[in-house]
Write a structure and sequence with these properties.
heterodimer, A: alpha/beta, Rossmann fold, six-stranded mixed sheet, 10 helices, 36% helix, globular, B: mainly alpha, ABC transporter involved in vitamin B12 uptake, BtuC, two-stranded antiparallel sheet, 15 helices
């Protein structure tokens, strides 16, 4: 907490070995009699985006909590750089370079951008337990780092509460990258955002990938996942229902698999009945039918 | 991320645009500081008594200054840490009674154990740190609202200090130090003395200024200060980025207790006596000072200087009413109006700070 976290941009040779940064092998998790995750595997490579897709209750958040060390899996193992690892807690996961950008972003709206950026890992000097902030350095380092992500900050003292949703996501991502995250877990980063703001966030996902980080993008939206993803892991009720690389699957197939073709066809049928005479509903029903048909 | 749209309409040369933007930003930056409201309020109150025909001569004299400063330091020394605690998201209602309880501790140690006064003061400091730790741990372990927890410790301390004093002190609630214990003169010079002559200022005013500077430095220039804002702003977010939220809170409670000890020690050394129940009711003044000074009741926003200015406002009001020849009870009415006005101005500043994009 004392020394400044150095920008960890050039640490890992990229694309040299095929050992993934992070590998999940056959993990399972139960809560009482409820099976939250069963036999799930995935891998995250440097400079790649692994998308975890699933509807509500698919086990995405359980997976996130296991990956971030909040609780251990009941079965299966986690490997970092090919070595089996047990995370004692969130700190341990972070020290292995695994950082989560939470849904709530862990940003404090009433604090300035630079204070948020360094919160918990402040650049400081001092004597013994008395640590003072290196404020000028902090402001400059933050500006520089955000510029790397393509974000230009005019006023580092501006409160985070005044930023847009997409800008906050960008700040949270930039913060994780700066503090040496090798694997970045983004938990539903676009779920609360409009189209434009979602686009901004996806842009920063690509930026992080291009900086050589491995990214896990958790989402229920295949249209957000497909353009940026390299691998796609589909979960349904805690089960792994698919694990593809991009060249193995099309966006139509992905959408169809996610929602379940049969269910979509039924939903489309129902909508067509309810929506007789309502063009807007008809249109939704047709889209659903189209997607249910496996990409037509 | 921020787009400056405020360029001059007539299209002045590039450099000047930049300057105007910077100027505008300096003003907005000033207006979003938490202590803006209190500063304006303090100036208004000062002018009010300066223009009052009855009060005016005394108010503008040095004696008048000593008068309200002598009130203000009693509020200010504790209001600053109470403000920091409030920014950290908690309250301490036991701070008022602690000024009396620590003075009583020193006095009883001197009379019962015949210690050197410095040892008595140190003993009271240990007691204050313990009370702060207890308050802090109770709050973080029980997850109860600190308003309730410290209300309980307030009553416990209030009862215990009177009970202890009466038991040991022949049923009198005033403990006067007997004889001339060692260290009295140095302790009095440092805590209870005065400086300057005709009129002389209590040294406590310097302690107040010192506490304000220390509080401001802690809050704005240290990692601990960053944690205070984060703890009060959003504790769970702060935790998830590694801020030791619980430790921060406990230390803040120790801070308020120690500041109460400082006031207790100053009062104890001034008269070498202590009164049980001294300071009861002051906890509300501290909170008023902090709130008027721009500290948000819900935490996460505020300033140490603001709390200090708030304390000065209270001191000025209570003393100014006397100088103006109004019945002193009206001082409270004045204070109530002040609190309302101050809080309303602060809400404006706070909203402004939240929406100001630059």
């Amino acid at each position: 907490m004392s020394a400044i976290g150095s920008p960890a941009g050039s640490g890992q040779p990229i694309g040299e070995a095929r050992t993934p940064f992070l590998e999940v092998r056959n993990i399972s998790k139960h809560f009482g009699s409820v099976v939250a995750l069963s036999d799930v595997s995935l891998e995250v490579h440097p400079g790649e985006v692994t998308c975890v897709l699933g509807d509500n209750g698919a086990g995405k958040s359980t997976l996130v909590k296991i990956l971030s060390g909040v609780f251990p899996p009941d079965a299966g193992e986690l490997l970092v750089d090919g070595q089996p690892i047990h995370f004692g807690g969130p700190r341990a996961a972070r020290s292995h370079g695994i950082a989560i950008v939470f849904q709530d972003l862990a940003l404090i709206p009433l604090m300035s951008i630079w204070r948020n950026f360094f919160l918990g890992q402040e650049p400081s000097g001092g004597v013994g337990p008395v640590r003072w902030l290196r404020m000028r350095h902090a402001r400059e380092a933050m500006k520089l780092e955000l510029r790397k992500m393509g974000i230009d900050i005019q006023d580092p003292d501006q409160m985070v509460g005044t930023l847009s949703g997409g800008e906050r996501q960008a700040l949270a991502i930039a913060r994780a990258v700066y503090f040496g995250a090798r694997v970045l877990i983004l938990d539903e980063p676009t779920s609360a955002l409009g189209v434009r703001q979602s686009g901004i966030v996806l842009k920063y996902v690509i930026q992080a990938r291009d900086l050589g980080r491995g990214v896990i993008l958790i989402t229920h939206n295949p249209h957000h996942a497909y353009p940026v993803g390299d691998r796609f892991v589909l979960l349904k009720r805690g089960q792994l229902v698919g694990n593809f690389t991009k060249d193995e699957i099309s966006i139509e197939d992905l959408t169809q698999m996610m929602a379940g073709g049969q269910e979509l066809a039924e939903l489309s049928h129902e909508l067509q009945q309810i929506g007789a005479g309502q063009p807007a509903l008809q249109e939704v029903a047709e889209t659903l039918a189209h997607e249910a048909g496996g990409g037509g | 991320m921020t787009v400056e749209t405020r360029t001059g309409g007539a299209g002045p040369p590039e450099g000047r645009v930049e300057e105007r933007v910077v100027g505008a930003r300096a003003v907005t930056r000033l207006l979003r500081r938490p202590e803006v409201g209190a500063t304006i309020g303090a100036v208004v109150i000062f002018l009010l008594f300066a223009l009052n025909p009855t009060a005016h001569a005394l108010w503008l004299s040095q004696a008048g200054l000593v008068g309200w400063l002598s009130q203000s330091w009693q509020f200010g020394i504790v209001a600053v840490p109470v403000g920091l605690l409030m920014i950290g998201g908690e309250f301490d209602l036991s701070a008022g009674v602690m000024t009396g309880a620590t003075a009583i501790t020193s006095a009883l140690l001197a009379n019962e154990l015949h210690w050197n006064i410095w040892a008595c003061i140190a003993g009271a400091l240990v007691f204050a740190v313990l009370v702060g730790l207890i308050n802090g741990f109770l709050v973080i372990k029980t997850r109860l609202n600190s308003f309730i927890v410290t209300l309980a410790t307030f009553f416990i301390l209030r009862g215990a200090s009177v009970g202890m004093v009466e038991a040991l002190n022949a049923n009198s609630t005033v403990v006067t130090v007997l004889g001339h214990p060692g260290g009295v003169d140095t302790a009095r010079a440092i805590f209870g003395g005065s400086f300057g002559s005709n009129p002389s200022y209590p040294i406590a005013v310097l302690w107040w200024i010192g506490v304000t500077i220390l509080g401001t430095w802690l809050l704005t220039r240290t990692t601990f200060g960053n944690w205070i804002f984060a703890t009060g702003g959003d504790a769970s977010a702060a935790r998830s980025v590694g801020v030791p939220v619980d430790r921060t809170k406990v230390l803040l409670f120790v801070g308020t207790a120690v500041s109460a000890w400082l006031v207790g020690t100053i009062q104890f050394t001034q008269g070498l006596s202590a009164v049980a129940e001294q300071g009861v009711g002051y906890e509300l003044y501290y909170i008023v000072a902090a709130v008027v000074g721009g500290c948000l009741l819900t935490g996460g926003f505020g300033s140490a200087v603001g709390a200090s200015i708030g304390a000065a406002m209270i001191g000025m009001s209570l003393q100014g009413v006397i100088y103006a020849g109004w019945p002193s009870q009206w001082g409270f009415t004045f204070l109530g109006a002040l609190l309302l006005l101050g809080v309303m101005v602060n809400v404006l500043v706070y909203r402004r700070a939240q929406s100001a994009r630059s």
